[in-house]
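Example 3.2
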Amino acid sequence: MINKAAVRKPFLMKMWEQYPKLWKGLIDFGILMKYRTLDISKLPDKIVLPSSTVLYVDAKENRGRALLISGGVTQKRLLSFWQQAVEAVKPDYIIDIGVNYGECIFSIIYPKHTKIFGIEANQNLLTYISKSRDAHPNHSQIKIVHAFASDSDGEDKRFFIDNHWSGTSSASYMPAHHMVDEVSVQSITVDSLLNNSMENKVVLFKIDVEGYEAFVLKGMRQLFENSRSVLGFIEFNSDYFEKTGVDPNSFFEYLNQYFTIYVYKENDDIVKVKSLKIEDLHEMFGSDYVHTDLILATDAEIADSLTSNEKS
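Structure, written as tokens:
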């Protein structure tokens, strides 16, 4: 099954962009094998996830179709972390930045006291996100915000909606293929969204914004400084950082101020790093190109417990 991690490898990125019809054919084959039809009207528009929650998807769009094939699970590493983290820390606030269809935010049932926020810039996904929210047991606790998460508020940001694969929609670069809509989306910071209400709270967040992670995290400074405990999961792709012009070591210097950082290796082993530099990742992965996931924790004891569980 095609997953996001595979698509982001440099060789496959070029193949994905230059031969979109080939990739669509592979996904169509998966749909045909599972549902015995390619008739859109006969395909489901929702998936029952392992937690019994529901995820609505667009059966015409490739990532939606990939979710149908995989039963709603294309990022097992993230979902494993997310479910364990919610159970372990019982967060006061959940923040999912880069919701996409909501594979993460709708994957689990949350404590009744938790306030849940999702931020998504792709307007084409909002109908499906809203349906999933309305069907979720915690629907009254979930707020979905159509905005561009960044380090500033109220700016009109250029955003590329990838109609070939919604998961690679981004502000950092325009895909080489021409199935792209360029739109303007107003920016928001997480700090302004929460309006200082996170003081002395436990916060769990996930960021998946295709190279704009550094800007989003700068817009969360007050959250990091005022919360009692913060635990997060982010993607790091060195190719995207190059496209956005962000120096990785400046980014890691910022993170090192607040967090102990945990790095997923290619075999899913997790390495704890107290002061991360890009050179550490080059050595760890044996390549100048690095694509991995990071766990960020202000409370290393909690994260140590979680990462130990993931290894076992």
